[in-house]
């Protein structure tokens, strides 16, 4: 179950909505000629949600000039700057926001996301721990605390955080799915599948939830259910190469190598530099005795990952089938040296 997909809490769309111009006009009216900071905040949020982050930042900067200690303005500005990748300036505004209100759980939550964007798992964990200390019912805080702990290898503590998220909100699909991932890694396979089923029921349009359930079912050899679930994942997100890879493994398992080849080709279209996909394409071709195609796939895999002994070993087999003894010996020698 190592390929289950962790699912993060969505940060919220910053793309335009169908209301578009009407909402933007409302936001301009809110901010025009008004000294009310709450109206400025509302306007900034609207602009951000409509994809006008630049205008939202401008409004917040102007508001902070006259209200330099307004914690929520500072916090929202920091969040928008972080989303834009302006991390150093975002750090400054997060510090100022927390100096003004150190008990604002949402500011700590945004700061956790900010650290997460930079791959700072320990700092992210600390921020989320502060979130749930301030607000024990902050579901997103518990979920992201679980993910941060998992990133740091603290699997038991991660499970504890996600179980707490489920207690607070049994309908949180992200908590259910991530709990399933951690249960699977802990070898709790039945519990894992149950959580994945719940996640799918809660989020039937989530490709990741279907993928995780399908992968878990594949690991349990429940192939008919796995195929249906993985095909639904592919329908929901046709760009995800992992789903086609999983379907290829499923078809290989039942000896349907032609279907495995089709699925792997689709996966490779989406991720052409993934050596693993070319390797398994070589496996599928080799099982069909399509030696020329197997060699092409395996040679590509070897170029992408020259230190993988499995690739060179199977290349040796394919060269032997093609009656290329010198190449076969070299491939076997390479595989042996890489295997130690």
Structure, explained:
The chain is mainly α and 340 residues long. It has a domain at 257-340: Alpha Horseshoe (Serine Threonine Protein Phosphatase 5, Tetratricopeptide repeat). The chain has 19 helices and no strands. It has helices at residues 21-31, 37-49, 53-66, 71-83, 87-100, 105-117, 121-134, 139-151, 155-168, 173-185, 189-202, 207-219, 223-236, 241-253, 257-270, 275-287, 291-304, 309-321, 325-339. Helix 6 (105-117) runs antiparallel to helix 7 (121-134) and helix 12 packs antiparallel against helix 13. The radius of gyration is 25 Å and the shape is elongated.
Condensed summary:
By secondary structure, the protein is mostly helical. It contains 19 helices and no strands.
Assign the CATH architecture of the domain at 257-340: Alpha Horseshoe
Number of strands: 0
Order of helices and strands: HHHHHHHHHHHHHHHHHHH
Name the CATH superfamily classification of the domain at 257-340.
Tetratricopeptide repeat domain
Principal-axis shape? elongated
Question: Which properties best describe this structure?
Answer:
340 residues, mainly alpha
Break the fold down into its secondary structure elements and pairings.
Blueprint: H1 21-31, H2 37-49, H3 53-66, H4 71-83, H5 87-100, H6 105-117, H7 121-134, H8 139-151, H9 155-168, H10 173-185, H11 189-202, H12 207-219, H13 223-236, H14 241-253, H15 257-270, H16 275-287, H17 291-304, H18 309-321, H19 325-339
């Amino acid at each position: 179950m190592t390929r289950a997909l962790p699912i993060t809490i969505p940060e919220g769309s910053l793309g335009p909505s169908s209301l578009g111009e009407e909402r933007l006009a409302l936001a301009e009216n809110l901010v025009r000629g008004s000294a009310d900071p709450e109206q400025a905040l509302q306007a900034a949020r609207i602009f951000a949600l409509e994809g006008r982050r630049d205008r939202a930042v401008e409004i917040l900067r102007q508001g902070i000039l006259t209200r330099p200690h307004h914690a929520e303005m500072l916090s929202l500005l920091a969040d928008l700057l972080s989303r834009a990748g302006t991390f150093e300036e975002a750090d400054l505004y997060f510090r100022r926001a927390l100096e003004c209100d150190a008990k604002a759980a949402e500011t700590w939550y945004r700061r956790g996301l900010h650290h997460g964007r930079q791959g700072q798992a320990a700092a992210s964990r600390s921020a989320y721990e502060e979130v749930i200390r301030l607000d024990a019912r902050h579901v997103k805080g518990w979920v992201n605390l679980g993910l941060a702990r998992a990133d740091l290898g603290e699997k038991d503590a991660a499970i504890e955080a996600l179980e707490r998220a489920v207690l607070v909100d049994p309908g949180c699909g992200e908590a259910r799915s991530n709990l399933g991932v951690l249960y699977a890694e802990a070898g709790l396979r039945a519990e894992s599948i149950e959580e994945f089923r719940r996640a799918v029921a809660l989020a039937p349009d989530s490709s990741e939830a279907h993928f995780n359930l399908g992968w878990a079912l594949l690991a349990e050899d429940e192939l008919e259910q796995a195929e249906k679930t993985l095909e639904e994942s592919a329908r929901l997100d046709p760009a995800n190469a992992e789903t086609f890879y999983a379907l290829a493994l499923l078809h290989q398992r039942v000896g349907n190598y032609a279907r495995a080849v089709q699925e792997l080709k689709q996966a490779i279209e989406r991720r052409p530099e993934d050596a693993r996909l070319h390797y398994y394409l070589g496996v599928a071709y080799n099982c069909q005795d399509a030696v020329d195609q197997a060699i092409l796939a395996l040679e590509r895999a070897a170029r992408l990952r020259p230190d993988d002994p499995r690739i060179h070993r199977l290349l040796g087999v394919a060269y032997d089938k093609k009656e290329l003894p010198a190449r076969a010996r070299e491939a076997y020698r390479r595989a042996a040296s890489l295997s130690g």
